[in-house]
Design goal:
This protein is mainly beta and 412 residues long. Helices cover 6% and strands 60% of the residues. It has a single domain, classed as Porin (Beta Barrel), CATH 2.40.160.60. The longest helix is centred in the first third of the chain and has 16 residues. The relative contact order is 0.18.
């Protein structure tokens, strides 16, 4: 009965969070395609450069590879949620700007099903759109605004076989709405609004595997791989035109179903993780996504956007001086970095991004709960033409609750 009440409370929290999960993009680059993509990394993983394909500690939820769920202890329930705050400094020629944002990033849960089997459910961002800028045109000016994004509500399960191999799968429900707006102001004072809306309701699958083996008594190596098959995206998109100088209803300028005209690509990921004596953990990951093959039709655009294949390399380290020592010795110290060749192209320029991160896992005395604090610097710009330079500073806060919900007390 106690477990049932906890699960019902968490399910209610998950359903409420679908309305408030943050869309953290604050960049004009998010105007193109589906916006800025996210990689399912928790606050712990972001502090390590965003690695996770080969991570399976059993004390941290790892949605990046569903095969990791099988590592959970048979008596443990994990609940992890994260928030972030972001500061942005941008530069385009002599123009400089700054912005601030943040909010709820994700909410995830993990629990055992039976021995050597685990499951996880949660809510994560898939992509985000957010920008506001303007420019002058002949006989007037334009203002551009965008908001929204796509979220994924997922459920996954995995099992471990032969004490070395784990396999798992996630099924995700993609949902959300993105809005891209253009306000046109003429020199005569008239105002118009052209709005492009995309609404997505679809399913997506992800498969993962991990293979772990010991090298001596204190060394452990894990190989991880994930695959997400490409698919047509289900939903609808439409364009609206508004004459802001009068009260007439808007005009539907274009409308179509996304199936057959919009799609998501095949995605591969792989990594290798090394652990030493429960103190040191290091990982290197590589991600590759075939966005050149993805479909994306034009709605109220002069031409449809071009995509390039996306790839990313990331690396991270976590060090715990003494897991059973004093409080300072039990703190987990994390460092990492990444380089991302994004799928977005702007006027034949590739968008590229790199970043460095650091953080701490702070144990809560008397509990197994860990408070994860991370600091992250990111730089984004286009190449070979620089276009807009963006520098981000992110602060992430995650709380990883580790509870013995399945422990049965006995009277002695």
């Amino acid at each position: 009965m106690k477990i049932t009440k906890h699960l019902l409370a968490l399910a209610l929290m998950l359903s409420v969070s679908t309305a408030i999960i943050a869309q953290n993009a604050m960049t004009p680059y998010s105007r193109y395609g589906y916006g800025i993509l996210q990689d399912n990394a928790t606050s712990t993983q972001r502090a390590m450069g965003g690695v996770g394909y080969a991570m399976n500690s059993g004390r941290q939820i790892n949605v990046m590879n569903p095969a990791s769920y099988a590592s959970i202890d048979s008596l443990t329930f994990l609940f992890d949620m994260g928030i972030s705050a972001t500061a942005l400094w941008s530069q385009e020629g002599d123009k400089r700007g700054k912005d601030f944002g943040g909010g709820l990033d994700y909410i995830t849960m993990q629990f055992p099903i039976m021995k050597n089997m685990g499951a996880s459910i949660g809510l994560l961002p898939f992509s985000s759109v957010g920008y506001s800028f303007g420019d002058k045109i002949m006989h007037g000016a334009n203002a551009y605004e965008g908001s929204g994004g796509l979220n994924q509500l997922y459920a996954g399960v995995s099992g471990r076989f032969f004490n070395h191999l784990s396999v798992g799968a996630n099924v995700s429900y993609l949902f959300g709405t993105t809005v891209n707006s253009i306000y046109a102001y003429t020199s005569t004072g008239s105002k118009s609004l052209f709005e492009r809306v995309m609404q997505v309701r679809d399913w997506r699958l992800q498969f993962g595997a991990q293979y772990s083996f010991n090298v001596g008594e204190k060394n452990r190596v894990t190989l991880g791989a994930v695959f997400t098959p490409g698919k047509d995206l289900l939903g609808k998109t439409w364009g609206m035109e508004y004459d802001l100088d009068n009260d007439e209803p808007p005009t539907l300028s274009d409308s179509l179903r996304t199936k057959g005209k919009y799609s998501l690509p095949n995605c591969w990921g792989g990594g290798i993780n090394y652990e030493w004596n429960n103190r040191l953990m290091a990982e290197v990951d590589f991600t590759y996504q075939t966005w050149k093959d993805a479909k994306f039709s034009a709605i109220q655009e002069i031409e449809k956007p071009r995509f390039d294949n996306r790839w990313e390399i990331s690396a991270g380290v976590q060090y715990t001086p003494k897991p059973r020592g004093s409080y300072a010795q039990r703190i987990q110290y994390r460092f990492g970095g990444f380089y991302n060749h994004d799928y977005l192209m702007v006027n034949d320029n590739n968008v590229k991004e790199y970043g460095l991160s650091a953080g701490f896992g702070l144990p809560v005395n008397g509990f197994k709960t860990i408070v994860n604090i991370g600091f992250e610097y990111r730089h984004r710009q286009a190449s070979p033409q620089v276009l807009i330079k963006e520098d981000y500073f992110n602060i992430t806060l995650g709380v990883n609750f580790n509870e013995m919900w399945f422990w049965k007390n006995k009277i002695r």
